[in-house]
Amino acid sequence: MKFFLALGLVLSLAVSAVAQHKHGAQKGPNGGPVEDVAGVHLEFVTSGTTLTFYVLDESNKPISAKGITASALVVAGADRETVTLTVEGENVLKGEVKKPIAANATISVTLKTPAGKSGQARFKK
Fold first, then answer.
1. Which of 15, 23, 48, 111 could in theory staple to 70 by disulfide, Cβ–Cβ 3.0 to 4.6 A?
2. How many alpha carbons fall within 13 Å on the CB side of residue 53?
3. So what's the pLDDT on residue 1?
4. How confident is the model at residue 80 (pLDDT cuts 50, 70, 90)?
5. Average pLDDT across the chain, whole number
6. Where are the domains of the chain?
7. Left (φ > 0), alpha (ψ -120 to 50) or beta: where does 3 sit?
8. Confidence band (pLDDT; 50, 70, 90) for 7?
9. CATH number listed for the domain at residues 26-124
10. What's the per-residue H, E or C state across the chain?
11. Whole-Å CA distances, 65 to 76, 93, 125
């Protein structure tokens, strides 16, 4: 009996931890998915050949993108393209790809903050 109680407790904690980690399902203020990268939140929005990442704090409020360096790798089937993201406006990182982004594309972002923190996130279109 104790075994089943312990097993139930472990499973409930695991399910709770997984539910809290589902950050990618969260939508940002611009309607895109949000991921935590290097201590900032990135919201991904795309239109045609433009990749746009909004830099946000933990409450999804805009914060400065100044000093952030980032690049994105766009993979759709056999097509791969690396794009340097540049700061545009107060809290926006943008990049242009050669072809419109396919519906099944995976976009991997590598980011480094002015404080030296770095990280990666993956988005699906």
1. 111
2. 33
3. 55
4. very high
5. 86
6. 26-124
7. alpha
8. very low
9. 2.60.40
10. CHHHHHHHHHHHHHHHHHHHHCHHHCECCCCCEEEEECCEEEEEEEECCEEEEEEECCCCCECCCCCCEEEEEEEECCEEEEEEEEEECCCEEEEECCCCCCCCCEEEEEEECCCCCEEEEEEEC
11. 27, 7, 23
**Whether pLDDT at 8 is above 70:** no
> What's the pTM?
0.79
Q: How many angstroms separate the CA atoms of 90 and 98, rounded?
A: 25
Strand partners, 50: 47, 96
pLDDT band at 25, cuts 50/70/90?
A: low
Asked whether the beta carbons of 105 and 122 are under 8 A apart, the reply is: no
pLDDT surpasses 80 at 57: yes
Instruction: Provide the pLDDT for residue 24.
Output: 45
Residues 69-89 as b/e (b if ≥16 CB within 10 A, e otherwise) read ebebebebeeeeeebebebee
Question: What is the Cα Rg of the chain in Å?
Answer: 17
